[in-house]
Amino acid sequence: DTAVSQTPKYLVTQMGNDKSIKCEQNLGHDTMYWYKQDSKKFLKIMFSYNNKELIINETVPNRFSPKSPDKAHLNLHINSLELGDSAVYFCASSHRTGDTEAFFGQGTRLTVV
Amino acid sequence: GENVEQHPSTLSVQEGDSAVIKCTYSDSASNYFPWYKQELGKRPQLIIDIRSNVGEKKDQRIAVTLNKTAKHFSLHITETQPEDSAVYFCAASGVYNFNKFYFGSGTKLNVKP
Questions:
Q1: What is the tens place of the pLDDT at every residue in B77-98?
Q2: What are the Cα distances from residue A86, in Å, to A5, A10, A11, A49, B112?
Q3: Average pLDDT over residues A79-100
């Protein structure tokens, strides 16, 4: 009964490859996010979707393409992976109202070699 | 967009002492201010939050204060315990343009036994 689940938990891949991370929430939330956490632990917002529509794209390279097939899912596809993409990627969800808790997935540790 | 600054980046206290972490935000329309705790290798989890219609909120050993005029809010942990050791993040959000949850840069708290 995990609230926000993302897969895989670990992902090791070579430069230049294309990979996807999946995220699903069963909380009935309208809004979902992708955050990138680098080695310095900064939690930087990448994308925000509300009811399948893109709301925020925070100057993320277009190699990153989020896809939301429905409001319970927000997947992240990354093309032509680079060494600098290595980080922990967190999916999160919240109510649209903006004044309630955002719930995080367990994170995906991406390592590009 | 919102700019959230957090200080200090690291904080070391003796068990039983108090710890204070401070944040400032830039967008006066933000009206929701959560605090998250992230233990090593785990997801960020909400520990306390405050909305703009109150100035202070307390939950056992944890309290948060908000000064909307000055645009700053603080986390106070009293009687710290070793299990309080973690990275703490403040965030600011609001319903003005869908919720965005911009996070501060994090504070690594170390409670020495």
A1: 999 999 999 999 999 987 665 5
A2: 20, 11, 10, 23, 32
A3: 90
Task: Taking the CA atoms of A6, B86, B80 and B6 in sequence, report the sign of the dihedral they define.
Answer: negative
pLDDT (0 to 100) of residue B3: 87
- How confident is the model at residue B99, as a pLDDT? 61
Apex A75 CA angle, A58 and A113, nearest 5: 80
Which residue from B91, B100, B106 is facing A42, i.e. has the nearest CB?
Answer: B106
Tally helices (H) and strands (E) across chain A. 0, 11
Contact B98 A107 (CB under 8 A): no
B interface with A, Cβ–Cβ < 8 A, is 1, 31-32, 34, 38, 42-46, 49, 51, 87, 89, 91, 93-103, 105-106, 108
Contact B105 A42 (CB under 8 A): yes
For B44-90, what is each residue's pLDDT tens digit?
Answer: 999 999 988 889 999 999 999 999 999 999 999 999 999 999 999 99
Q: Give the model's pLDDT for residue B98.
A: 59
- Give whole-number Cα distances, A47 to A51, A64, A67, A90, B111, in Å: 13, 10, 10, 11, 34
Helix (H, G, I), strand (E, B) or coil at A85: helix
